[in-house]
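Q: Structure tokens for this one, please.
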Amino acid sequence: MNWRAIRAIVRKDLKVVFQNKGVSIPLIVVPVVILMALPGLAALAPRLEDMPGTSFSGLETLIQNMPAGLRQALTGYDEVQTTVVLALVYLMAPMYLILPLMVASVIAADSFAGEKERKTLEALLYTPTTDWELFLAKLLSAWLPALGVAWGGFILYTVMANLAAWPVMGQLFFPTTMWLVLALWVAPAVAGLGLGTTVLVSSRAETFQEAYQLGAVVVLPIILMVIGQATGVMYFSTWLVALLGLACWAIDAVLLWVGRRTFRRSNLATQM
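A: Here is the predicted structure, written as tokens:
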């Protein structure tokens, strides 16, 4: 395995990403909005209770229709605290997974399709690597930044959630065991799911936009999870999150196997 060449490709790809404003700006703005602005809304929870006409009866009805495990997890909190925990711990959990998925998909979409647009694909194909090493380098170029955003974002969200909710909670309540499993086990797998799909698409697409639009289909399951949490159909328990991560890692292994068997630089050369 030519790790020196792989590292060179990864460094080159990361440099291109950070210099491309169309790619780098969404990678900064979206995490900031999700991880800082949304937790900040928790600071408004005490004011809602004091507003005339405000009622938590709708919240009680919502909780009664949720799974028994979630109702048990919320036992012991008052109405305002329940609102904060429900929003920051449970409803935000699937939204957090959008971050590594988005970062991996955006960078992976630029992997080969972007090389074609920049007319640098020919030089890439002549690098002293095997087809597998080139494919692996492109995967790492997207997976490592996604992992950095996921874990860095988790730390940032932990700080913001505890600070914003301190007037309500009066204690450190985050992270929970479920969130630790989510960040350390599921987020890397979800990033792999996004980049594995998008790299395969990017190697066949002509432009970055085409590759990104086709690869964005992998976001749909996350959107369904957000809806499922909001409607009470499901909730992210520790065991469910662990099983979700296992399923994602299994799909990642399949995508890696398919990519290793089907990726050929000779096919890319015909598209130049």
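A few notes: The longest helix spans residues 131-169. The chain has 14 helices and no strands.
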